[in-house]
Amino acid sequence: MKEDRRSLKIFGIVFMTILTLIMFLAFMPGIGVRPFGEISYRSVPTDDYYIEHGIEDVGAYNIVTTVVFDYRGYDTLGEATVLFTALTGAAALLLGGRRHGEE
Amino acid sequence: MGRNDIEKGGMSLIVRTIASILLPFILTFGIYVVIHGHLTPGGGFQGGVVLASAALVVLVSFGYRLAENMYKKYKTLYSPLEALGGILFIIAAAIGFSVAFFYNYLWTSRTLFGGTPGTLWSGGMLPIMNIAVGLKVATGFAGVLALFFIYTYRKSEGEKP
Amino acid sequence: MIPPLQYFIALFLIVAGIWAIMLKKNLIKILIGLSVADTGVNLLLITLAYRNAIGGAIPTAPIYTGYEKGMIMVSPLPQALVLTAIVIGVSVLALALAITLQIYRHYGTLNVEEIRRLRG
Prior knowledge:
- Chain A is mostly helical.
- Chain A has helices at residues 2-26, 44-57, 63-71, 73-95.
- Chain B is mainly α.
- Chain B is elongated and about 60 Å long.
- Chain B has helices spanning 13-35, 44-62, 64-73, 75-93, 105-108, 126-157.
- In chain B, helix 1 (13-35) packs antiparallel against helix 2 (44-62) and helix 3 crosses helix 6.
- Chain B has one domain (6-157).
């Protein structure tokens, strides 16, 4: 049992070191992503379309709300389903077994 | 709710008075954030969480006897309200089904919510969807918080949870 | 050699959360690590949506209320997706806490090694 715990700790520390190194390398400005705040030219056409045509398509000033509820409405539908399912499951776990008693 | 509420899980008189005074302001702010979702930062989810925090203030300061009485009295009201929020969201999305599923029918034909952009009566389907999602989130979180509370206090008192 | 400060804070939160999930023995501490990692990922997604000032324009939120002529709007798409991710994280945490309460009632302990040994 002691050897199990010590080998688990060594594996944990080695894994965390490798993970930290990979993450830091992936987010350095020269090697990985672009520098902070610059425009990524693959996503500019979509963002400019949402900002320019948001008012005449939907009619609301809040561009984030038009993206959430009108341009990407299916994601909000899926999220409402996940919320409903998780809260129903939590309520069923906390209330269940009251009528059947302890066996 | 007299003077001997402290041993039933509630807090002192000062906390109860301040919670009773603060409750209308929290509710008004939550409804404001939900309804003005298409003009200012906010919307359905954020306003629903603010309304659920009003329920949490009442739960923590008044004790679990009040929570149990309220739960027994309104037990058949919470889950239909949450289901009503979800059904209202799907109906609002399926009105313009002849063109597409999430088609903004109320804005392109300038009926009920079709004013000039920037006022309250604008935005098409967005205020209806905001109210539906806010109702769903607020009642869902308030119900689950009340259930956690009742479960813990029943278990610590020895009753069957 | 560390990344810029805006990325470094989000990466630090993610690494701390994963460290707590892997190497802790108490169930509540594992759930706290899960929540911290969730927060770090949402922060990282929002940080990627910023736009610098181009030609003297001030970056501002993508809302037209209070918008003047000399402003540039940041990207609204990651903010909409992070809104969904936050709500899903809270729902998963509520369900996990309900399961933890039932585990404590059934086994009497919250230590992960002892639960793995008892087997009901």
